[in-house]
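In the design runs reported in the main text, the only information available to the sequence generator was the tokenized backbone. The following block is the verbatim input for one such run; it is reproduced so that readers can re-run the procedure and compare outputs position by position.
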């Protein structure tokens, strides 16, 4: 007989929250390093799927003057830490949205890009196939509206992107260190050097050219030679190509001959544009249904919520295919951007969904968002109203509850649950980077939210929270390699022992998890 627990060997250890996700069609995705491994729990020794993460091309969002490179708001954009692409957040769609009636996998990487993948059907390979690049679609949308900077041509929610929010983005980068890592590539140290910026050409060229192109591209000898030839006297704008550190090379200054078509913008404009395009967390909504007005048929759909550094939450809608095929030429419904919600003024670090009936025949969707500024908000949206949203309108989410505390630790994980038998109550669990755990109860009738428990649950970052037993039991895991179980005793949350077949943990309430 096979053992109840089996070990799985991975190429690296998961290093971010939301690194492990279990799909409704019984597949487990584990994000470790630059690989997302797809496992079948029924046959761990069998074939595996793989999502190979590759560096994405930076977005040409504009150029800035050379003197603006040292503005504080550009520091988080220019800094880079990770040498390889890495998955920051993953989430499975409900079953039936992939061409094989399976689940789609949404992957958000440290360079801020979000892509959708499906399992290989007609391809003879183990690597999953990319079906959509949501970041590229989002960039195309922002480009058509000039990033919401033209009067009367942008969403109401985008009007809140101002100087104050830009300063908040820069001030919270240190608090969100696990979520702010970028892809620096290999750094080569060559003179001349000024404040960690490497300039092409000699010192005379540096003094002669007041402005240059700041581009994240590999530097080579041929590039240097061409840079010297094209360098001109006078002021030239500096191009911070794309999202700062998405390339696999060092940051270098060269001539701006190839970026003259990009618009000249201020440093704060660049920081805001970069924040809007830098995604941090993804979460699929539950499967919902609505009646099609044209065909009068019931259509099934779901929404993917994507949180960004700007505090915006983007909503992408996908319809469940009416039929499935193995024809490679048949394309299922494409994701559609239906709305933007200005949820916070800083980084959105956690998102979770839940369905609430509110004691009536009309179902609604609950959305909880956690932020690096320590706040958590609960939003309520009518399903029919959300279904009518098209063309990136302002989604009909209403703020119904907000949690603000004096704690200095940002939010790392959240979870919502509607307890069985409690028609007017919603349980909210909040995990923080300090290891603390809080539970709150929101009353849908009185619109009051009360704290029911607060404790130091783990020694390190709380990386996952999940409600069980119809909302009366809570599981938490942490970067300290432990998992714990909590259960309500009256209105108070108490820890209970977790019994396993591991000899070393039978007498302990902590379950030690081997590093992957």
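Verbatim output:
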């Amino acid at each position: 007989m096979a053992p109840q627990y089996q070990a799985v060997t991975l190429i690296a250890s998961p290093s971010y929250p939301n690194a492990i996700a279990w799909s409704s069609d019984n597949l487990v995705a584990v994000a470790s390093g630059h690989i997302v491994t797809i496992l079948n729990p029924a046959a761990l020794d069998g074939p595996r799927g793989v999502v190979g993460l590759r560096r994405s091309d930076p977005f040409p969002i504009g150029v800035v003057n050379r003197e603006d490179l040292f503005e504080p708001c550009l520091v988080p954009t220019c800094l880079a830490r990770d040498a390889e692409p890495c998955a920051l957040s993953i989430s499975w769609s409900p079953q039936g949205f992939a061409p094989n009636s399976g689940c789609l996998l949404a992957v958000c990487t440290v360079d801020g890009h979000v892509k959708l993948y499906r399992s290989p059907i007609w391809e003879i390979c183990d690597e999953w196939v990319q079906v959509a690049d949501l970041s590229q679609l989002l960039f195309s949308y922002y480009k058509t509206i000039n990033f919401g900077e033209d009067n009367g041509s942008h969403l109401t929610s985008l009007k809140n992107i101002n100087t104050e929010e830009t300063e908040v983005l820069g001030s919270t980068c240190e608090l969100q260190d696990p979520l702010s890592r970028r892809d620096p590539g290999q750094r080569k140290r060559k003179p001349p050097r000024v404040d960690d910026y490497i300039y092409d050409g000699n010192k005379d060229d540096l003094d002669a050219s007041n402005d240059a192109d700041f581009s994240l591209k590999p530097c080579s000898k041929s590039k240097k030679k061409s840079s010297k030839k094209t360098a001109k006297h006078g002021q030239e704008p500096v191009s911070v190509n794309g999202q700062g550190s998405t390339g696999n090379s060092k940051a270098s200054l060269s001539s701006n001959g190839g970026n003259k078509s990009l618009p000249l913008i201020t440093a704060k404009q660049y920081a805001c544009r970069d924040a809007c395009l830098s995604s941090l967390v993804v979460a699929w909504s539950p499967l919902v249904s609505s009646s099609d007005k044209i065909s009068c048929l019931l259509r099934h759909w779901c929404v993917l919520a994507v949180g960004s550094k700007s505090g915006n939450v983007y909503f992408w809608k996908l319809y469940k295919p009416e039929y499935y095929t193995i024809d490679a030429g048949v394309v299922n419904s494409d994701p559609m951007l239906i709305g933007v919600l200005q949820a916070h003024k800083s980084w959105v670090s956690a998102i979770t969904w839940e369905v609430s009936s509110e004691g009536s025949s009309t179902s609604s969707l609950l959305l909880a968002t956690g932020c690096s500024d320590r706040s958590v908000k609960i939003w309520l949206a009518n399903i029919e109203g959300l279904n009518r949203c098209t063309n990136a309108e302002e989604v009909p989410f209403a703020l119904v509850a907000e949690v603000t505390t004096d704690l200095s630790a940002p939010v790392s994980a959240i979870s919502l649950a509607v307890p069985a038998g409690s028609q007017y109550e919603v349980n909210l669990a909040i995990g923080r980077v300090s290891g603390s755990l809080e539970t709150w109860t929101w009353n849908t009738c009185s619109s009051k939210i009360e704290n029911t428990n607060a404790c130091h649950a783990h020694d390190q970052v709380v990386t996952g929270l999940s409600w069980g037993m119809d909302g009366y039991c809570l599981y938490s895991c942490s970067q300290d390699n432990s998992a714990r179980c909590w259960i309500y005793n009256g209105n108070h949350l108490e820890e209970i022992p977790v019994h396993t077949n591991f000899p070393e943990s039978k007498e302990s309430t902590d379950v030690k998890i081997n590093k992957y």
